Amino acid sequence: MNHLFFFEKTIQNFYKKEGRKILPWRKKDISAYKVWVSEIMLQQTQVGRVIAYYVRFLKRFPDIFSLAKASWEEFLPYYAGLGYYRRGQNMLKTARVIVSEYEGMFPDNKEKLMKLPGVGEYTACAILSFAYGKNVVAFDTNLKRVFGRFLFGSKYAELDKNDIARSLNSDKKMLNAAIMDFANSICLNRPRCNICPLSEKCLYFKEKGEREYVLKKEKKHFPTKDARVFLWLHREHREYYSANPDRFEVFILDKKMNSRDGIKRYFSEHYGLELAVRPPHRKTFVDEIPTLFVNAQILLGDHEFAIFAKEDIEECAAKTL
Asked: Rounded to whole angstroms, what are the CA distances from 202 to 6, 117, 206?
């Protein structure tokens, strides 16, 4: 940890010159609600895509009370396009919990925050840091990558987060924002070591990334363009839908409709439904036919499909999963 003083000073200087202070969620005295909205939207979504959604969303739902009153149908147009629709469902659930149990104020307690739907340790720490000024480090993938490389030579290194946090002396709110920005401009997945101000004391740079090097297994060719789709249509993996009322069957789509847009178009045209479609979670051969396994959920529209519980589909799953 003896390099951390150099690390903090260098990161502070970087942030003063290069920090993304114009981001709409970087405003001074920002509310916990606005921090929470930004952090949920930023999960697995690039900053550039989120900004417009964030601004438009807050115009429609300026506070937790307006969001808590919204139906899914009212909420969806302001979220649709970000993907990962369970995040959106959890936003509505959390808004209602905050209003009913906390009088509209996000708690300033990590354990209570982590009990909210869709709020994990990182999001809880981000709320505590950015909204409440708490002295906590918000370890997301960006911070883990930077600390892992600088201290241990690899973004895959196991970090003692508490030990690192105790060793840091800078303002944690500034440091969290600074390292996130540093990770998104310098310490990328393919790091720009040639312009990195940390390089003189960075173990990754010293070792030329040897610890992070992983042999890539030779990928077997899979004919995706010729693959049909086995589609599991469900509601949060609690209810599963089948066009056959007598036994559960996955929906089988021809290779012409094996893209996410193609699947959405098929269900819109045939059933009048709007779906959220996940990327294929498996590519395999079933009866020697290339097959994509896909999960999807209904966002809007009424259906007349038969409903099966998770245990009712085990036989089918055993054959195809």
From this structure: 10, 38, 6
What span, in angstroms and rounded, lies between the C-alpha atoms of 276 and 263?
10
Active site residue 39: yes
Alpha-helical (H) ranges within 137-217 are: 141-152, 161-167, 172-185, 203-206
Domain-embedded: residue 262: yes
**How many domains would you assign to the chain?**
2
pLDDT in tens, 203-262: 999 999 988 876 434 446 789 999 999 999 998 888 899 988 888 889 999 999 999 999
Span between the terminal Cα atoms of the chain, in Å = 46
For residue range 57-92, what is the model confidence (pLDDT) as tens digits? 999 999 999 999 999 999 999 998 887 888 899 999
Nearest to 297 by CA among 229, 230, 231, 235: 235
DSSP class of residue 190? S
Exactly one of 8, 39, 73, 210 is catalytic; which is it? 39
Rg (CA), the chain: 23
Is the pTM higher than 0.85?
no
Regarding whether 177 and 86 lie in a shared domain, the answer is yes
